[in-house]
Amino acid sequence: MKIKLVFAVLVVCAIISLPACNNILKNDQKPQTHQTSKVEYSCPMHPDVVQDKPGKCPKCGMDLQVKDDKKER
Questions:
Q1: Distance CA 20, CA 14 (A)
Q2: 30, 38, 46, 70: which one has the fewest Cβ atoms less than 10 Å from its Cβ?
Q3: Are 63 and 54 in contact (CB under 8 A)?
């Protein structure tokens, strides 16, 4: 009698936990749509100097500024 009760409790626990596992699997299979825009930094005096992080221009030592794509022709 105890074995049947233990088995019934295990079956109920398994039935309850299966939907939770199913949601985890579904979330892992979704393609990632989060896109980050690439920020580029360039020298105001030397637009050919472009880096992916802020710093100093290797030619003149000026601080690099965020590159504005709207200004380019």
A1: 10
A2: 70
A3: yes
User: Which pLDDT score, from 0 to 100, does residue 1 have?
Assistant: 80
Residue type (1 letter), 53? K
For residue 39, CA distances in Å to 29, 43, 51, 69 come to 29, 14, 9, 10
Domain boundaries in the chain?
1-29, 39-73
Report pLDDT digits (tens) over 5-54.
998 998 888 788 766 665 555 555 556 555 566 899 999 999 999 999 99
Say how far residue 11 (Cα) sits from the centre of its chain: 38
Beta strands 41-42 and 50-51, pairing class: antiparallel
